[in-house]
Amino acid sequence: MKAVSIKESGGPEVLEWIDVEDPSPAAGEVVIDVVASALNRADIMQRWGLYPLQPGTSPYPGLEVSGRISALGEGVTGWQVGDEVCALLTGGGYAQKVAVPAGQLLTVPKGISLVEAAGLPEAVATVWSNIVMTAGLQEGETLLVHGGAGGIGTFAIQIAKALGARVVTTVGGPEKAARARELGADVTIDYRTQDFAEHGPYDVILDVVGGQYLERNIQSLAADGRLVIIGLQNGLEGQLNLAEIVFKRISVHGTTLRTRSKEQKAAIVAEVQDKVWPLIENGTVQLVIDQTLPMAEAAEAHRLMEAGGHIGKIVLVNN
What we know:
By secondary structure, the protein is α/β, with parallel strands linked by helices. The protein has two domains: 2-120 and 287-317, Quinone Oxidoreductase, Chain A, domain 1; 124-254, NAD(P)-binding Rossmann-like Domain (Rossmann fold, 3-Layer(aba) Sandwich). The protein has helices at residues 41-47, 121-134, 151-162, 174-182, 213-220, 242-247, 262-281, 298-307, and strands at 2-6, 15-19, 29-38, 64-72, 84-88, 97-101, 105-107, 142-146, 166-171, 187-190, 202-207, 221-229, 251-254, 289-294, 313-317. Strands 3, 4, 5, 6, 7, 14 and 15 form a seven-stranded mixed beta sheet that branches. The chain has a six-stranded parallel beta sheet with strand order 10-9-8-11-12-13, with helices on both faces. Helix 2 packs across helix 3 and helix 2 crosses helix 7. The chain is globular and about 55 Å long. The two termini are 13 Å apart.
């Protein structure tokens, strides 16, 4: 098979479409013939050498795929060869085949094409596990989403609105602000000219930025507020006022989906299938795809993501 390999840490040019060994399913796994994968910010970090891989993880990037099951490992039940699925991965999605634990498989939602389904698992599981399972967002609360026009943000806005929350989001420019409002955002803040802290307080903040946002995130949280940090786009360090955390009873959570155990991922996937898939099938939550490129052009897709002009997901397709 072919896969996208990272020959060394660096820019998009280090990605190579090369021949590699086919995967085989271990016990409890299936092999998927990959129809499509989708980009996530972690792929960019991995390419730069900033996202250490767990032992046994595929060296190829790609945290979600869609495709058809082509082989079943020992002990797998409930799935058959030929089933169309999408899946949450720990890596290896930029390829023609990938092995994945059966607990991380999802059906393809009705009304969503097999190619489109590649853009669902990682972003939806990230949003649900963080704003619901970790932060406990409730009806009537206010959620601040940093980066509301991205793959994570577009889902976070819609899922939070479906839960009955008020949603505020930061965006970069009027086009992204307009799209965020179409998806349900109540307030949009252009982070280039406005200070999100002035629009608080917020009950929950979903932060993909990190770094310099830490102090203002804490300042703008309400009493009993919850900050969930899932990205470090703006650095690894920030100021932290412990008095505010103590006196406002603030909770700060740092999470990644990729490093969770198979059992934890399976539990998240099960909730997503049960709670979010019906919202996608009835149109309450929409998948937003910016553009689709051939898998062999992963380097160009990475350039597009790093340029920051996209809205929603960028999808890679095996021809």
